[in-house]
Amino acid sequence: xxxxxxxxxxxxxxxxxxxxxxxxxxxxxxxxxxxxxxxxxxxxxxxxxxxxxxxxxxxxxxxxxxxxxxxxxxxxxxxxxxxxxxxxxxxxxxxxxxxxxxxxxxxxxxxxxxxxxxxxxxxxxxxxxxxxxxxxxxxxxxxxxxxxxxxxxxxxxxxxxxxxxxxxxxxxxxxxxxxxxxxxxxxxxxxxxxxxxxxxxxxxxxxxxxxxxxxxxxxxxxxxxxxxxxxxxxxxxxxxxxxxxxxxxxxxxxxxxxxxxxxxxxxxxxxxxxxxxxxxxxxxxxxxxxxxxxxxxxxxxxxxxxxxxxxxxxxxxxxxxxxxxxxxxxxxxxxxxxxxxxxxxxxxxxxxxxxxxxxxxxxxxxxxxxxxxxxxxxxxxxxxxxxxxxxxxxxxxxxxxxxxxxxxxxxxxxxxxxxxxxxxxxxxxxxxxxxxxxxxxxxxxxxxxxxxxxxxxxxxxxxxxxxxxxxxxxxxxxxxxxxxxxxxxxxxxxxxxxxxxxxxxxxxxxxxxxxxxxxxxxxxxxxxxxxxxxxxxxxxxxxxxx
Length: 546
What we know:
Pathway: One-carbon metabolism; tetrahydrofolate interconversion
CATH topology of the largest domain: Rossmann fold
Distance between the termini: 12 Å
Family: Belongs to the formate--tetrahydrofolate ligase family.
Number of strands: 24
Oligomer: single chain
Catalytic activity: (6S)-5,6,7,8-tetrahydrofolate + formate + ATP = (6R)-10-formyltetrahydrofolate + ADP + phosphate
Mean pLDDT: 95
Protein name: Formate--tetrahydrofolate ligase
Binding site for ATP: 56-63
Radius of gyration: 23 Å
Structural class: alpha/beta
Largest sheet: 12 strands, mixed
């Protein structure tokens, strides 16, 4: 979308009742909302969760559908706001590309957002790596905290996909260069600092959560940021990044975009502060959680919603015919080719996600993200299958038509909100033992028959019990492509075991991270990364960021 077509951000703010003096403008089209403005009004909006079935590698368009639905509701006279995550530059230059929606349902200015945006990711990276530097400095000068270099768990992060940095040795070059030790890098979206920022309501809670982050483990317990007395320095770096960002869609609908943890290796939700802003400044909020409902939605409902005391009123499951064919065994290269047999074989994946969301007490509808090569016959078959199970659905052509193409979905959302009541309840209580929490997620949400723990995971559970950390929530890291921990096991697999090889502790965020299967927290680039499709002309105009 041409920049001259965008509205000044002050005009976007006016749609949600904010004056130009209420926001911190960063150029013409981006702004931050100060925390005192966020909380000046009571909550009033109904909250809609946008999720999906297990996606294909290109994704199924949750962000595009979130944007398109918000635009459609605005066309219907509803004060709707999309509240979304910020993109990571790793996937932007990797395989998936940007994360601002697409076509006529994008968040703008999309190129700015997909690159540096307002600097939030850089601030998080700086805070995370400052802590890493302070930890190495502690052991270099003779640790007063008795930190054992081999027991340091705090790595470094960068907002790039770089497999070469997964395992590194630092401190080489002689005694004056540091203490040699093995460590590694994660991507910024997997940083606990990212999780802490997105799960904090204000600077006071941010400082407290930062203080609880674990940097190493000893014989008698964890060594934390509070032991190092580094929480105020980290908070200083993050103070501006705590403010949510205000931008707009292709049709000038307000978007509050803030925070960007991945759902496969972190909890996959935008910040609590951004959600609070949407709930207090509009009548309907559409928020998305990363990847399929087994990852982002589960973590939204079992981590973010209980922490923020959110009451979601509706879940919308995004499905594409392409994804159903893929789960039915059709190769991705052919997944746009009509194949009734593959559709019928793959629809079990959709049924599982719908059943899971209904088990939380949520009303559930299905949004069919229609592609240009989908046939009417296939769409009618899918809507018929859903109707047989009493699941309401609507096809949306929001990529091509924007809000106009989402009016049927918008009407369905309005009808569902007015006729159905949510009875939301998380899957587990905090008091449940950690192993029981993991088992409940694995068996009830993924459909596993059991959970198998590797030696490192067993040792981690033993330490957590010994050190009275059973109250932590669970944020499982696993592949996004399957309900299982095996990305090749598509559809609705049954009779499999979830393999947990290790468990990381994110005490500041308030959860543990069981690492399932081969899941790693620093992605790599594909053979043909999207970075090679980016061009810049002599006028500085950037193209190819999609």
